[in-house]
Write a structure and sequence with these properties.
Blueprint lengths: L2 H33 L2 H33 L6 H12 L1 H20 L6 H19 L6 H20 L2 H10 L1 E4 L2 E4 H31 L5 H26 L4 H18 L1 H16 L7 E4 L2 E8 L3 E6 L4 E5 H6 L3 E2 L7 E9 L5 H13 L11 E7 L4 E9 L7 H18 L16 H6 L1
Antiparallel strand pairs: 1-2, 3-4, 3-7, 4-5, 5-6, 8-10, 9-10
Helix pairs in contact: 1-7, 2-3, 2-4, 2-5, 4-5, 5-6, 8-9, 9-11, 13-14
């Protein structure tokens, strides 16, 4: 290959960029030349006067509109939000309305060319106002700002008639990746399409998730699985559709994704294990949102099932994020797996002089008088042994709201037993130790 040809081919993108930039400069020079005409100055002055009038109207009418909205009690929230958005943009609304009326009057009394700049200003103001109002529907502030400024730039270029030149300028800034050419114009197209499709996928996923959660025939775990699966499908489809629409070859992407998958399999084993464990948990319905579980020293109820972890909230307000793999490989006590009934046991002892039949009856009656203890599953009391200083009993009772706590209900039953035993003269013995000091009389006798 001739070195001169190689150098020329390497400079071709730079020469194309330079030619495009010169064309834009020439067009800007022509615009400035026409801008210096007297009637163009008149149109700019008219636009400034209209803007000042709109500013004065907004300054006086905005507080009046704000006071009027404060007196509208009982109006729906969505209606008040629309009024707030309009109230904050009264200046631009008045400017658009007034300038279009001025253009209409000028086209009737003078040549249309003498209102050319005013028409461009009116079109830009109308487009900017419409974009500002439309993007208020987007809740994400970062996405709203990005789309707003991107749309403003696009409509400005389109109205000024610079679309072809800007496209050529952006397309000239490119790099070659093997057999593919990646330009700035292609990247912007891909970004815009990807943002639009992801926003649409997010809207569809949110609407579908709300519909799934309202369906009482689907279990909570299957609801979570369906929502996660739907999100993966919609976001994945949005990503691949955006790449396909801008002309990216997905065959090479498939090979690349396979290589990345192998790397992820080795480098992110724990992450993949947690993801698979999360799917297994959702499928076998071993735990679901709202279940009360114990895992080691952690006791609480499941707040949410995630793709990588399970959120557990304890009675003291702490939130533990337990990896899904620990719930699959470890021993988990699910207090509400098949039903909400939970049996609790407490142990106590009484003196040998107390009648055990009477003790059992008093203990059962005391437990039945405690809130949260079920009456349809009555408590039972049994003797479990004869200890060194007491007759040992076990009191068993049932509750159906483990989320209300276990320690507190045990404490309430113990208090009820204490009050009942004090009332009926039942004594609770405790071990007693007697210490005797031996004198030294035998040793003195030997002396």
């Amino acid at each position: 290959m001739n070195p001169n040809e190689a150098t020329g081919s390497g400079q071709a993108p730079f020469e194309s960029l330079q030619a495009t930039a010169l064309a834009l400069l020439a067009q800007a020079e022509g615009f400035l030349t026409s801008f210096l005409r007297p009637w163009n100055f008149y149109q700019i002055g008219i636009a400034l006067i209209v803007f000042l009038i709109a500013q004065v109207l907004a300054h006086y009418l905005a507080p009046m509109m704000r006071d009027w909205m404060r007196r509208r009690e009982g109006w729906p929230t969505w209606r008040m939000r629309i009024l707030i958005v309009l109230q904050r943009r009264l200046r631009m609304i008045f400017f658009v309305i007034l300038i279009w009326h001025v253009i209409g009057v000028m086209q009737q009394v003078t040549w249309p060319s003498r209102s050319y700049l005013l028409t461009i200003v009116a079109q830009l103001a109308s487009a900017w106002l419409g974009i500002a109002l439309a993007t208020r529907l987007i809740r994400n502030p970062a996405l709203r700002t990005l789309l707003r400024y991107g749309a403003w730039a696009w409509v400005t270029i389109s109205i000024l008639g610079l679309g072809d030149e800007v496209q050529a300028l952006l397309d000239s800034v490119a790099i070659d990746l093997g057999g593919a050419r990646l330009s700035l114009w292609l990247s912007l197209q891909a970004a815009v399409l990807l943002i639009a499709l992801i926003a649409m996928a997010r809207f569809l996923a949110g609407a579908s998730a709300a519909s799934i959660r309202r369906n009482e025939n689907i279990s909570p775990s299957m609801q979570v699985l369906a929502v996660k699966f739907l999100q993966v499908v919609l976001y994945g489809a949005a990503f691949f559709m955006a790449l396909k629409l801008v002309g990216v070859d997905l065959t090479g992407l498939a090979v690349l994704s396979g290589a990345i998958g192998v790397g992820l399999g080795f480098g992110l084993q724990k992450v993949v294990s947690n993801l698979v464990s999360g799917v297994i948990i959702l499928l076998d319905k071993s735990i679901k949102p709202g279940d009360v579980i114990s895992l080691g020293d952690t006791f609480g109820w499941i707040n949410a099932l995630g793709a990588r972890y399970v959120s557990i909230t304890t009675r003291d307000g702490k939130e533990y994020l337990i990896p899904n793999e620990d719930l699959i490989t470890g021993q988990v006590v699910n207090w509400s797996h098949s039903n909400d009934f939970v049996r609790l046991d407490i142990y106590f002892g009484t003196a040998y002089g107390d009648d055990p039949h009477k003790v059992r009856r008093i203990a059962i009656e005391a437990a039945q008088g405690v809130n949260r203890v079920l009456s349809e599953k009555p408590p039972v009391c049994h003797i479990v042994g004869f200890g060194d200083s007491s007759v040992d009993y076990i009191l068993r009772f049932w509750i159906r709201d483990p989320t209300g706590g276990l320690t507190n209900i045990r404490g309430n039953v113990y208090l009820a037993l204490w009050d009942a035993f004090q009332e009926h003269g039942i004594s609770i013995p405790f071990p007693q130790r007697e210490v005797r000091m031996l004198n030294e009389a035998p040793s003195r006798a030997l002396d």
